[in-house]
Amino acid sequence: MIYKNDTIAAIATGAASAGIGIIRISGENAIEVADRIFRAKNPNKRLVDTPTYQALYGEVVDGELVMDEAICLVMRAPNSYTTEDVVEVQCHGGMILLQQILQVILKNGARAAEPGEFTKRAYLGGRIDITQAESVMDMIHAKNELAARSSVRQLQGALSDKIKEIRAFVLENVAYIESALDDPENYSLDGFSKELQDKVQNTTEEVDRLLRTAEEGKMIREGIRTVILGKPNAGKSSLLNLLLGEERAIVTEIAGTTRDTLEEDVMVQGIPLKVIDTAGIHETVDTVERIGVEKAKKSLEDADLVLYIIDGSRPLDEDDSYIKSLLQDRRVIILVNKIDVEQVVDKSWITSNIQAPLIEISAVTGEGLTRFKDTLTEMFFHGKLSMNDQVYITNLRHREALSEAKDSLMRVLDSIGQGMPEDFLTIDLMAAYEQLGTILGEQLEDDLADEIFGKFCMGK
Amino acid sequence: MPQIEEHYDIVVVGAGHAGCEAALAAARMGLETIIFTVSMDSVALMPCNPNVGGSSKGHLVREIDAMGGEMGKNIDKTYIQSKMLNESKGPAVHSLRAQADKAEYSRAMRMTLQQTEHLTLRQAEVAELLAEDSGISEEGSASQKAADSGESSISQKVADSGEQKEALRGKRIIGVRTLSGGTYYAKAVILCTGVYLKARCIFGDVSNPTGPNGLQAANHLTQSLLDLGITVRRFKTGTPARIDKRSIDFSKMVEQKGDEHIVPFSFTNTEEDIQREQVSCWLTYTNETTHDIIRANIDRSPLFSGMIEGTGPRYCPSIEDKVMKFPDKDHHQVFIEPEGEYTNEMYIGGMSSSLPEDVQYAMYRSVPGLENAKIVRNAYAIEYDCIDATQLHASLEFKEHENLFAGGQINGSSGYEEAAAQGFMAGVNAARKIKGLEPVILDRSQAYVGVLIDDLVTKETFEPYRMMTSRAEYRLLLRQDNADLRLTDIGHEIGLIDDERYAAFCKKRTAIEEELARLQTVVIGAAKKNQDYLESVGSTPLKTAAALSDLIKRPELNYELIAPLDPERKPLPKDVIEQVNINLKYEGYITRQQQQVAHFKKLEKKRIPDSINYDEIQNLRKEARQKLSQIRPASVGQASRISGVSPADISVLLIYLGNS
């Protein structure tokens, strides 16, 4: 799919930038796609009639629903970055809004760009030179690995099981049809379409359920990976509860994570955080506790942000020195907790040893929470914090794949309804199978032949 | 000692279905061709099932016929029953299958070979390939250039180490030597050795070092291939017993008749041209008794005892495989098919086996109608050497051995039709090479022939490869009914379709195009007479005026049915009407596949230069680098189909190629 010359779209601006957000669309239908989601202020103007390097002012719309004000800049082939037709949709910033607009664009005929795909097209179009191209190759690989890792991370458990189950169902039915086509004297398709209709109906509904889950955001677990770290009883869980209580956006408990770390999705002033609460860090001989400490250290590995909680009512000790060593090269916010009681902690030691903003709070009374949020927002918008956008793109692709799979299954139902012969049904069944496979990162290979020979007794 | 020494343009080794097509194509393209066979009585032999065609195989026959192949014409001459399979399904999977009179089939093909100009038949075993240094290899030595004087022979050592293989790369094949020492120089050699290389027939504890039907095996050529550094595999297949018709009780079986209206395989024939009385086949079933006999004796099967090493096909299992692998099935179909009109032998389809003779008797006799069966020939498994076809270009020429081509079962395929298709292409491409022309390479969107060859040369095959319609991504476009529309232009261009036939084809194509255009312009209104007619044929009345082409798209209607609404219509041949119907009725699906093909072609067109060094491309994953270095795909499209090469690797490759 990566090499299709179709129309692609992606958010072009980083997650951190405030002000203007840009979504870039490139490909042979870029202008038509943009035209579908954009209504110019001047009702006589349309993007499809706009000359190259001219812009229109108006609104981004999803059908009748107005989503944002925007300026759309049209760059016609070959005079664009990718050498294809390109439209840049410049709207108001805010990752969430941009993501919603991108989804509308995808719904209208573009697909989510692969990692490095704009640059790849620029290269293939002769736009950039070899040095740049080499860095693209690096990026393609780095990003693919990242995407693969993050999709595995998201797909553990129930969702991937469900998708595998649906794929198995699809493949088995295709294999039956193919066996009957190949060996019609042995396998009969009489009445098969009717049976298949009900089954595909159910499967379509299942895919639709998955899709709705995705849209509600339960599948999408993107966000800034934020690890709460500290000694036992420093107030880590209270902080988490505080964040959750205040701005509870999405709360899910991930099944299968250890009892020692707890993950929560929290929205702080529009910034999505994935907060990971960890076991208290201290030197211990207790096996169970030690496992908890190891898990906490592990979750630091891919953290975007660490919230280091210190109990202000207790003096610092060796455990704090140890935690300090864990925080090297990490983006950190220090939270001195329990300011509602008497303070004994040596703040000067902290500030001279750890390069990070220090905020005093009370997780019980909520004092200092606003300061914390402001600091967080500031870091985010000044580019000091960013989430792993790859995770988000992966999610988008999953959703797109689910949506395409659903469309394919609907076409199967359509074909059955029209009384099309069974060999036509396999076209869209196989398409659904492949689309679902992209979510699992699986390639087609010889699945079908294996299934046919494995399950059906063929031949002379 | 004086030896025979002759010179030809092309040597074809083997006169089975691949060899015959290769030799005919080459000779008809004007090249002096000699074809070797171990026995003049086994030309175009059908040693297994007595039929041609079937699902997807019928497509292959129609395709080579459209380009000037012989198989379709030969089966039209010698069929004794014909059937269009899957008629109730979509047009993409309609498949023609005909029962052949085996002896007649073989005789007719031999006669065609013997009547073809520029073609010599010779009964002899080819034992050795003659090679010289092509100059491509850096290790070339001057002494080997003496080849022209007839002194050259290839190394007799087994090239088993990588180093030796490396040294043997870059050879040019210049001819063959027969077992008796005759030397035949040629500008190209085509290997169509079928199942004869080191063949061994096995049943029970009996192992005969022969080809099918006790024919002489080719026991020497494998060594010559190994010496040239060619990778060889061992495959296995099998055939059921033949039973005396007089010992069969047909009253216990279901008669299987041929179609009343038959469709010829060859586009040069009409139904009337080849009309004849057809012979029936018969259907019966195995039962639990049969299965018990097999299970009780399974330890005596050479497959289960490990005596057979070769890999057999999963799609063509022996009856013991079926019983062991599918224990839940309490019966399997058995088709009793005549081997010809002038023989009592009946082929027992569905019950191939390598069990011992006594078990074969017991098991066949447990089947209703076969209680008193007399076996004429035993069932047996056959093992043979074949090559790893990823050593071939898509032209079927060896990548490392110039002027050496291979087609048919030697390439790891199975089936007469798969063999014929490859043989045909190998013959065409060998001839074109000698003429200094580009090879003809059909891609996966053009023909099943293209799918077949691309699969063989791209994907490593570990079992005999059989064509299936599901292997074709664009099968709605690759129908048996439009093989001529897809390929006659090519056949004409290569010189195997004469001007007369081509003119008739062009007339048909124009008629289809014109009729499709006309149907779009003829609009009928909602007049009562029209509405009444539509209702009378079970359709719904018109809401607004509609083009005839739109009416034909309705599931319940077709071109013939709307005749009363189309008084202007001129009479058209059946095959033209068929195309009009299909093109209109499945337009949506066809258009979608055409769009997919457009995407597919873009990558196929991105060629990879021969000189590419994959080790230089840093960002390729190791596995991809190894596979690409090994298979050396010709295009990025082909590269993308190699297992172990990911989309990310393809991106990297595209960028690298864009640069160099």
Account of the 3D structure:
The complex is a heterodimer of chains A (460) and B (660). Chain A has 460 residues and is α/β, with parallel strands linked by helices. Chain A is built from 14 helices and 13 strands. Chain A has helices spanning 30-37, 95-107, 117-124, 130-155, 158-182, 192-216, 236-246, 287-300, 318-326, 347-353, 369-381, 389-417, 422-440, 447-455, and strands at 8-11, 20-26, 38-40, 54-62, 65-75, 86-92, 111-112, 224-230, 262-268, 271-277, 305-311, 332-337, 358-360. The longest helix of chain A has 29 residues, at 389-417. In chain B, the strands form four sheets. In chain B, strands 10, 11, 12, 13, 14, 15, 16, 17 and 18 form a nine-stranded antiparallel beta sheet that branches. In chain B, strands 1, 2, 6, 7, 8, 9, 19 and 20 form an eight-stranded mixed beta sheet that branches. In chain B, strands 3-5-4 form a three-stranded antiparallel beta sheet. Among the domains of chain B are: 239-380, Elongation Factor Tu (Ef-tu), domain 3; 511-586, tRNA uridine 5-carboxymethylaminomethyl modification enzyme MnmG/GidA (Arc Repressor Mutant, subunit A, Orthogonal Bundle), CATH 1.10.10.1800; 606-659, GidA associated domain, C-terminal subdomain (DNA polymerase, domain 1, Orthogonal Bundle). Chain B is α+β, with helices and mostly antiparallel strands. In chain B, strand 8 and strand 9 form a beta hairpin. Chain B is 34% helix and 18% strand. The interface between A and B is large, with 49 and 57 residues.
